[in-house]
Amino acid sequence: MDDPLKVHKALADETRLRLVRLLSQGPLNVNEIIDILHMGQSRISRHLKILAEAELVTNRREGTWVYYHANTQPTGNLRSEMLDLLRRHEHDLPFHKEDLQGLEGVVERRHAQTRDFFNRVDDPEQLHQGLPLNGDSYRQIALSLMQGRHHTVLDLGTGAGLLLSGLLEKAEHVIAVDSSTKMLEMARHTAGEGVTRCDFRLGDLAHLPVANGEVDAVMACMVLHHLSNPAGTIAEAQRALKPGGELFIVDLRKHEDESFRESQADLWLGFEPNEIERWLKKHDLDLLDAAIIGDSGRSQQLITFRGRKK
């Protein structure tokens, strides 16, 4: 049951309105919020607590980090209506341009960290050191999700192109997208004779260099945990798919191994299956299959999904 007084009191403050607007764009940790709003930690934490008590924001722990985001599934109608109202009038809220510029800076720093890591890679095998399965194993898992033959497959975050040969056995054409020029150079070399059936495109996975409905399958193999906004990339994948096209996801199940931040440039320490299922549903993708792979006693497991655009 909504508490109208608590909800309205929580929103009756300029800083909290700014926080809700920022967190509706995607998850941020406290240090990132401090960088954007130029306020002290105690002040930010106090405002976040008030918003959380009103159930307008929620948080998720990523090892020692905590990320806050707007509650996209508020339990009461009033909260839902208020958040929708704020989204529709966000341009009228104070410090709109300044906050968006600050948010762009945070996202770019995240992207730069990932790009710098992959641009330093000289040996493709380095990319899967420490993962729960070796690279060949999880690539086979990814390919096993694809049933039948496809005309055009989009490979998100193609990296060194180690999945391309397998994709070319299941598709006539592959569009390989990555944000690192070095990775794309390695992928061209890896593709070998299949390079003539590949289209290599440099781009941000949050804004795919792909037209609406250009592909009939999208592969996201061990890439979402590197991305600033994985839910946004799923939305972009849905946009790129033709009606009836399929999205295949292989990624890490949520874990607590902080070393992955340094060894693999991971932004997120994996995901819970229901989290990705929620993103698929939100972006009009029917869930066809889902699985958890690996011993529950291991520190990391894989999760897989197959979704279809409505």
Structural summary, described in words:
By secondary structure, the protein is an alpha/beta fold. The chain has two domains: 4-94, Arc Repressor Mutant, subunit A (Orthogonal Bundle); 124-309, 3-Layer(aba) Sandwich (Rossmann fold), CATH 3.40.50. 41% of the residues lie in helices and 23% in strands. It has a seven-stranded mixed beta sheet with strand order 6-5-4-7-8-10-9, with helices on both faces. The chain has a three-stranded antiparallel beta sheet with strand order 1-3-2. Helix 1 packs antiparallel against helix 4, helix 2 packs across helix 4 (41-53) and helix 3 packs across helix 6 (96-119). The chain is globular. The model has no long low-confidence stretch (mean pLDDT 88).
Helices and strands, with pairings:
Blueprint (H helix, E strand, L loop, with lengths): L3 H8 L2 H10 L4 E2 H8 L3 H13 L3 E6 L2 E6 L6 H12 L7 H24 L15 H10 L5 E7 L7 H5 L2 E8 L2 H11 L6 E5 L12 E7 L8 H11 E12 L6 H5 L9 H10 L2 E9 L8 E8 L1
Parallel strand pairs: 4-5, 4-7, 5-6, 7-8
Antiparallel strand pairs: 1-3, 2-3, 8-10, 9-10
Helix pairs in contact: 1-4, 2-4, 3-6
CATH 2nd-level architecture of the largest domain: 3-Layer(aba) Sandwich
Report the order of strands and helices.
HHEHHEEHHHEHEHEEHEHHEE
Classify the beta-strand content into a percent band: 15-25%
Biggest sheet, spatial arrangement of strands: 6-5-4-7-8-10-9
Shape: globular
Number of domains: 2
CATH superfamily of the largest domain: Vaccinia Virus protein VP39
Label this structure with key terms.
three-stranded antiparallel β-sheet; 12 helices; seven-stranded mixed β-sheet; Rossmann fold; alpha/beta; 2 domains
